[in-house]
């Protein structure tokens, strides 16, 4: 029995570390060497190497020409199955809004105490646009999407340090932020409340705009309604 418990604990630790490798690579947004991954995990290089080899075998991690690690294409196939109905309903609207405004448009969803980008679209003909990679995450207390998500929760669940801001978002129907998640970037988000889904937000992120946040929010609200209608309310 003790032996079985130790095996279970070891398996759980290995799984946790493997997931952390994927998170480290996603957060880095660039290829990393084995030593860099080991350092960020706080483990010996040999342990990091074994984890990476297993993830490679499943196509979740791949090597670039220099031998550094990056997320593998298999992850995209797995991610396509996450909330597939929401992704399918949102994608046409995200594409329209992104090209119309010249901004990256995306849907973020609540995942425990974080906001996670589910699907995003960059504008086709913009001179400069911001990459918002699916799977990127940040605390739901930071940035416009986080506050738009929080505004859909009961007031007693709002963190005290942002309760006043969330109350304002709930009253006006949108959130805006500048430099909170990534320096120099602005964002506007509106709540995307969908039956059968965690609270979500429809948002744009940009460097600069001739539109006011209120004008951007009005366009996003129209897009959010279209997505809701496509999913049956």
From TrEMBL:
IclR-ED domain span: 67-233
InterPro entries listed in its UniProt record: GAF-like_dom_sf, HTH_MetabolicPath_Reg, Tscrpt_reg_IclR_C, Tscrpt_reg_IclR_N, WH-like_DNA-bd_sf, WH_DNA-bd_sf
Any one Pfam family match given in the protein's UniProt record, by short name: IclR_C
Entry keyword set: DNA-binding, Glycerol metabolism, Transcription, Transcription regulation
Gene Ontology BP terms: glycerol metabolic process; negative regulation of DNA-templated transcription
Domain of life: Bacteria
Domain HTH iclR-type: start-end pairs: 12-73
Keyword presence, Ribosomal protein: no
One MF annotation (Gene Ontology) recorded for this entry: DNA-binding transcription factor activity
SMART domains (alphabetical): HTH_ICLR (SM00346)
Function: May be an activator protein for the gylABX operon.
Entry protein name: Glycerol operon regulatory protein
